[in-house]
Amino acid sequence: MGVIQTSDSDTATSDAEFRAEIRDWLAENLSGEFADLRGTGGPGREHEFFDERLAWDRHLAAAGWTCLGWPVEYGGRGASVRQQVIFHEEYAKADAPARVSHVGEELLGPTVLAFGTEEQKKRFLPGVRSVGELWCQGYSEPGAGSDLAAVSTTARLDGDKWVINGQKIWTSLAHVADWCFVIARTERGSSRHKGLSYLLVPMNQPGIEVRPIEQLTGTSEFNEVFFDDAVTDADLVVGAPGDGWRIAMGTLTFERGISTLGQQIRFARELSDIEDLARRTGAADDPLIADRLDRAWVGLRVLRAHALRTMSEDHDDAGGASVSKLLWANWHRDLGELAMAVQGATGLLTGPDDMTAWQRLYLFSRADTIYGGSNEVQRNIIAERVLGLPREARP
Questions:
Q1: Is the pLDDT of residue 258 over 80?
Q2: Of all helices (H) and strands (E), which one includes residue 15?
Q3: Is there a contact between 77 and 68 (Cβ–Cβ < 8 Å)?
């Protein structure tokens, strides 16, 4: 994956220089105390070297490599979309560790920039940029799943505080987060998309209990979170009260943005390793396996082509984020199944403490089509809001 092509030779030169700058910086800094962090962390592996990866994130921040696309006045570099893509590509190529500050930098920060007040920007953006405060996302609920409009967690205004009651589930990294952005129903008697608000809630308070959920992989990177008269300040609502649905959809669009290009390079590395495994085991000689490997190669290039198309400045993103989520989630789930097929019967052998990387990939990728908005929800969004098809029958 080379430099993104452009007809402006000066811009192309600038981008090439930027690529060299980040590549050289990573080569120099992924050494010493950080040398062992290469390839660590990420979905299903967030437990790996957490404190060390947090220190790495703060090292990145001190060198000015966080929040690149933010305006300079809010601590960013004002980097172009091309340069942000280049950063994520080079970061992934260097096999640098997965970021522990992803939720704050890629989700909460852009949301506050787009919809927050100036006071909220001054209060929260410095902590995100410096990785001084970590964030988690309070969306899914036991009775709602990926149907965000069905949330039942409530918040009522009591003087200068919102008082929050309810439960969230599958909340990644809630056990280490300082803050949570919570979708809560703030208008009594409201339903579906109306009456929701987007609240910024401190996690370290008596009214919040975090309980880990053990995954198939044996680790617990996500949690259930209980709000029992938890509170946050009245002015810590992003957008107007009752406008939470629009803000939440904005966050989901940011979630499926530029950083997915780096994700695709990690996918490519996984596919390359599976191809090597297939050659070593002889599985590549099986025409069915060979066909699946070819299809995975083609699918990965489709992911990149779609991502670059939707990131162009003149692209109308209607449904683009949902299409991206469907494409990569299904591709990665299928890759996990392919990894098991390449291993054959030996892939079924494991003990409680010696799960292989391929077994972990297979098990955790089952969740890809669920978290971040399930396949069913994404297809409904595309059908109803983009194609204008009749709404699915609902009880």
A1: no
A2: helix 9-29
A3: yes
**Quick one: which of 326, 339, 343 has its CA closest to 292?**
339
Quick one: tokens of 245? 């649905």
* Residues listed for the chain: 395
Nearest partner of 226 among 248, 201, 249, judged by Cα: 201
Q: Is 255 a catalytic residue?
A: yes
Q: Which of 90, 255, 270, 275 is labelled catalytic?
A: 255
pLDDT tens across 127-186, in order? Answer: 999 999 999 999 889 988 777 788 999 999 999 999 999 999 989 899 999 999 999 999
Tokens 């000689």 belong to residue: 285
Comparing C-alpha atoms, which of 164, 169, 324 is closest to residue 234?
164
In this prediction the pTM is 0.83
Q: How many helices (H) and strands (E) does the chain have?
A: 12, 8
* Radius of gyration, CA atoms only, the chain: 21
Largest interatomic CA distance in the chain: 70
Tell me the C-alpha distance between 214 and 121, whole Å. Answer: 35
Q: Is the dihedral of CA 68, 309, 369, 376 positive or negative?
A: positive
